[in-house]
Design goal:
Length: about 425
């Protein structure tokens, strides 16, 4: 039950479990997306404006907890192994959803979002686990499959959550708790440990805090450069949740149904690329060229989103945005190949911290730029300014990626 992953026979089910874990975790997170706003507004006696402010606070707190907890959980998994961290995180999420389902007031919900931000940061350990059980040549494909699992969870979760919320806004929280606890039970009996004791590292708060975790990135110029690519890519990605709904409603006059269908289409395209195309693309191009290809596709896709004057033109950018996913998986593969097994958790925690910073900056950057574009800057005629900024972020990421991987090629093996 707790044996070390040592050969291909055990690696395959272990990888499958991680994919199931990520799918169920994102499914549970997605379940509460449609109902959390209603629950908050109900606690405020129908005051939507105050509800929006509270939801913004919840989102910021969740991102801060991810930023603080990711490096700690990653470093902890380097010390005690991946298995206990993943299982305890699943248990924590399950009990957190129970807490939120029973919440009698906003304070309970606030505590729930804090706990959720901490336990959901276990994705850093999931990435470290994948680096443990896959060879360097297969990591980009495996990371791509994790991306597909994210996509599936976020496609199905909100749809189910919306349906369940029609019966009772608290019901999705109970279902999410069930998924998380079932996930923990399944992992207890199925998930083997991936990090042998002889490859573990001593835990240190100096390395585990978000600032200290960056020490590993600074130890190799190429790691810092690739972390910069991840930061800019995450910053670009933040434009989608921050501005898409208000942008689509303003520019294309889409209702909630059309917005939902568009998001479903984006998710399906992303899942197809992440789950089926990344492996062949990386095998044909290599990780470095695949990363460049993905960043170029994403930059063009964002430019189309920002410049599209009609909805159908906007949809043309969706397949290109899906191909952007190739860059994320290839970047993860190139980064993980540059550290040893005993540092994978710390590395993934540091990267989570970097992405967390982008998550704190992005929402304000894109909502304020959209407000400027349709207000004081309306004469520019560019309501798609947030997506043009995102495109520039990926162009900058492309320049950094090209330079750092040209000077510091990836090692042949780890």
């Amino acid at each position: 039950m707790g044996g070390i992953v040592a050969d291909q026979r055990t690696r395959t089910p272990a990888l499958a479990f991680i994919l199931i874990t990520v799918t169920l975790d994102t499914l549970a997170l997605g379940l509460i997306i449609p109902v959390l706003p209603k629950l908050v507004v109900d606690f405020l006696h129908g005051d939507t404006a105050d509800g929006a402010e509270i939801l913004g606070l919840f989102g910021t707190v969740w991102a801060v907890m991810q930023f603080l907890s990711g490096p700690i959980l990653g470093s902890l998994s380097d010390r005690v192994g991946r298995r206990p961290v993943i299982l305890l995180s699943n248990l924590g999420l399950g009990f957190d959803y129970v807490l939120m389902a029973l919440a009698p007031n906003l304070l309970w919900l606030f505590v729930g979002r804090v706990i959720s931000g901490i336990t959901a940061a276990s994705i850093t350990t999931a990435f470290a686990y994948i680096a443990d059980v896959t060879g360097p040549e297969k990591r980009a494909q495996a990371f791509g499959m994790v991306g597909a699992a994210f996509g599936i969870g976020f496609i199905i979760g909100p749809a189910i959550g919306g349906l369940l919320g029609n019966f009772d806004p608290r019901l999705p929280f109970w279902v999410a708790a069930g998924f998380s606890l079932l996930n923990a039970a399944y992992g207890f009996f199925v998930l083997p440990e991936s990090l042998p004791p002889e490859q573990r590292a001593a835990f240190s708060w100096r390395r585990a805090n978000p600032v200290g975790a960056l020490t590993l990135l600074r130890s190799h110029p190429e790691l810092m450069g690739l972390a910069g690519v991840s930061f800019l890519a995450q910053l670009a990605h933040e434009s989608l949740p921050a501005a898409f709904v208000i942008y689509a409603g303003y520019r294309y006059h889409w209702d909630q149904g059309m917005i939902g269908l568009t998001l479903a289409g984006v998710g399906i395209c992303g899942a197809v690329v992440q789950g089926g195309l990344i492996g062949p693309i990386v095998a044909r191009m290599g990780e470095r060229r695949a990363m460049m290809f993905g960043l170029i596709a994403g930059a063009i896709g964002f430019a189309i989103y920002g410049l599209a004057e009609t909805g159908p033109i906007f949809w043309v950018g969706t397949p290109l945005m899906a191909l952007w996913g190739v860059a994320g998986a290839a970047t993860q593969g190139l980064t993980s190949a540059r550290v040893g097994a005993h540092e994978q958790g710390q590395l993934q925690g540091a990267l989570q911290g970097v992405r967390g910073i982008a998550g704190l900056i992005g929402p304000a950057l894109y909502t304020l730029s959209f407000a400027y574009a349709i207000g004081a800057g309306a004469a520019l005629g560019q309501p798609g300014l947030p997506y043009l900024i995102a495109a520039l972020c990926l162009v900058a990421a492309l320049a950094i990626a090209w330079g750092v991987t040209r000077r510091h090629p990836a090692p042949a093996s780890t």
